[in-house]
Structures are given as C-alpha cells and as structure tokens.
Amino acid sequence: MCKVLIFSCLSVLMLMTTACGAPLSEKDDTLTTLIKDLENLGTSMNEINLELYTPNDKKECSWQTLQCYLKEIVTLEKEIEDEDEIEDENVSSVRNIKMNLQKLTDLIPPGTGCSICEANAKNFPEFRRELTNFLRSMLK
Ligand SMILES: *[C@@H]1O[C@H](CO)[C@@H](O)[C@H](O)[C@H]1NC(C)=O
Description:
GO terms for molecular function: cytokine activity; cytokine receptor binding. By secondary structure, the protein is mainly α. It contains 5 helices and 2 strands. It has helices at about 1-20, 25-40, 60-80, 90-105, 125-140, and strands spanning about 50-55, 120. 2-acetamido-2-deoxy-beta-D-glucopyranose binds near residues 41, 43, 44 and 93.
C-alpha cells in the first residue's frame, strides 16, 4: 500500500518536472526575448519621425511577414544610428531585435503561395504594438 503511494507520488512529481522544467524550444525562446526587448524599448522611439510599413499578417505566411518586419527594423536601425536623442542602449536593443528576427526566420519554414506582404505605413508605437501581437500569436 505504502509502496504504491510512494510510487504514484513519484510519478506525479516526474510529470510535474517535465511539464514545468522542460526547456523552451529555440523558437519560443527567441520569441520571448523579442517580445521582452520590444517592451523594454518603452517610449524611447516615440520621438522618431518615421513611418514604418506594417504588414497585415496571415497565419500561414509568418515567414514572409517576418521578412517584411525585418526590412522595416533595418530601416529603423539606420535612422536611429546617428540620432543624438536616442540612447546607445536603445540602439543596441534595436540591433538585438533585428538579429533575433533574423534568427527566427531561420527557425521556421517559409510558407508556400505567400505573396509579398501588403503593408500600411504606421508610426513606431503602432508598429511595435502590431509586431508584438504578431510575435505573441506565433508563441501559441
Ligand atoms: C530604452 O529607453 C527607455 C526609455 O524610454 C528605457 O525605459 C529602456 O529601458 C531603454 N533600454 C532598452 C534596452 O531598451
């Protein structure tokens, strides 16, 4: 009786550690880092006078959507590199975001039958919000 009890306790414990202690996949790990970095940018980019093309995302075309975001982040990076008002740490954070978006495109398969994304020009706060929502949807 006691043995059975101990055994079932052990299996519950083992189930719990696999559920909680399982390492995140590289994709989820990258997504989490990206979401955090975007959040940390705070209001630092709000002064920048730049419209960024924000793609409409389609579930099966995540790879293409990422490419479109990546292009805009490169534009943003070039724009803020010489801006005195933007802190160096914020510039390197944008650079990190670019690198992780790049990494993410290497981790997921390109969708088929996806066209170049349709995009709307938006200011940075909106761009950031949509990109964050898109990354969150990829996390599920
Ligand atoms: C960037 O600047 C903001 C201030 O708007 C700050 O809160 C944030 O922590 C900074 N750092 C990074 C790494 O984004």
